[in-house]
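Changelog-linked ticket: nicotinamide-adenine-dinucleotide example.
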Amino acid sequence: MKKSTLVSKMFDMKGRVAVITGAAGLLGPKHAESLAEFGANIVLLDRKPAVQKIAAAIARKYKVKAIGLKCDITQKSELEKTLKIILKKFGHIDVLVNNAANNPAVSAGGFSQNWSRLENFPLSAWEDDVAVGLTGAFLASQVFGSQMATQKKGVIVNIASDLGIIAPDQRIYRKEGLPPEQQPVKPVTYSVIKHGMLGLTKYLASYWAESGVRVNAISPGGVYTNQPRDFVKKLARHVPLHRMAHTDEYKAAIAFLSSDASEYMTGANLVVDGGRTIW
Ligand SMILES: NC(=O)c1ccc[n+]([C@@H]2O[C@H](COP(=O)([O-])OP(=O)(O)OC[C@H]3O[C@@H](n4cnc5c(N)ncnc54)[C@H](O)[C@@H]3O)[C@@H](O)[C@H]2O)c1
């Protein structure tokens, strides 16, 4: 029988190497901070070069090793190059957080017929969104997850969304004074990608269960970033806790799923949405 371990010890990530995609956006640096706080060395990937500065700040603040690498996750060759760099520097990979996605702000824009509506949604936008949000997560899992499987240990955390569980209520995005055919909507790709992330999570969890690689998802609710007051009010009405999330409110969930604290979990979806999906 396994001897009991202190819970605080189970969160310890000292010496582990965590790779985070889309790490130069709103939430990526928060995921990185959360794992660095528990001692993990961090590899931040993004197609924005800003990722290097973010890595330097994390290394200074948390006294861990942190590197920022420019990497387009839609390109398998770039991921393979990145894997080589990581293995040369650290020798192993312990955590992958599939966080990158296109998050187009829903607005009425200047179009006569709003581009976000299903009837007008450009094929190029569909392809680009899927390439980042779904194909990118698949490719990063294929490249980094396979490495973990050869190590016989690792964790993948896929960032889904409350909109991976429920359909968007398009009334939230409505703008007064616009005719129905010009009303902006949450794009179809968001739903498809986030539902797909949950499918990918279950598939990989069962596929790699015997190789020691656990795969779980987090479904966050909407984060407050100075959206118009009217939008926030409408969204809050859908949330039992009656507010949007703050950027720091997913850090504990990331630490839990990335560490041994969740060692008996795989294929699960940790919903952190203020209760939105229970209504
Ligand atoms: N912000 C929210 O309210 C919210 C709510 C639920 C779920 N989520 C999910 O959380 C995750 C992070 O959200 P966010 O708000 O930080 O998004 P964000 O748009 O601020 O950050 C996404 C990052 O991904 C990067 N990226 C895009 N394409 C890439 C590519 N091909 N290769 C590498 N990097 C690429 C972007 O440069 C950006 O830095 C996303 O998956 C998002 O769908 C966010």
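Closing comment: Example verified and attached. The chain has eight helices and seven strands. The domain at 7-271 is CATH 3.40.50.720 (Rossmann fold).
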